[in-house]
Design goal:
Length: 128
C-alpha cells in the first residue's frame, strides 16, 4: 500500500506520545472526507473502509516507533459504528503498546466525543 495514499486519507493533528510515554498514548486524527477511498463501499454514502482504519494504526506506530512494521495478527477487530467522514471526521485513537522482541502487541480504540467507533487488538512484526 502506498504511503502517499494513506497520508491523504487522514492527517494526524496531535499526539501525546513521547519516548518516555510510549506504552500508552493518544493521537488525534482528522479524516479527509474528499478522499476517493470513502466512495468505494456504498453509492452516495461515504464510509471509512476498515482496512484503512487499521492502516492508520500501523502508520502512526511506524512514525512514533521509527520502525518498519507489518501486520501479522488481527486477533480482535470490531467496527462498532460506521464512520462517515462527512458526519464525523475527527477521532482520538488511544493506543496501548507492548514490545516483546520483534513483535509489537497493540490495542487501539477510535473514539469521538466518548463514543467508540473501532476497536483493534493485534500484532505487528518489526521488519528490517
Amino acid at each position: 500500500m502506498s504511503e502517499q495514499l494513506s497520508e491523504k486519507f487522514y492527517t494526524e493533528i496531535s499526539s501525546n506520545y513521547t519516548s518516555e510515554q510510549n506504552e500508552t498514548f493518544s493521537s488525534v486524527i482528522e479524516l479527509n472526507p474528499k478522499h476517493k477511498v470513502y466512495a468505494g463501499h456504498f453509492p452516495h454514502i461515504s464510509i471509512a473502509p476498515g482496512v484503512f482504519l487499521i492502516q492508520t494504526v500501523r502508520d502512526i506506530l511506524v512514525e512514533k516507533l521509527n520502525k518498519k512494521l507489518i501486520l501479522t495478527e488481527g486477533s480482535n477487530i470490531k467496527f462498532v459504528a460506521v464512520i462517515n467522514p462527512n458526519e464525523t471526521k475527527d477521532f482520538q485513537i488511544d493506543f496501548t503498546v507492548k514490545q516483546i522482541d520483534d513483535i509489537i502487541d497493540v490495542s487501539a480504540n477510535y473514539t469521538n466525543m466518548g463514543n467508540s467507533f473501532t476497536k483493534f487488538k493485534g500484532k505487528f512484526k518489526i521488519v528490517q
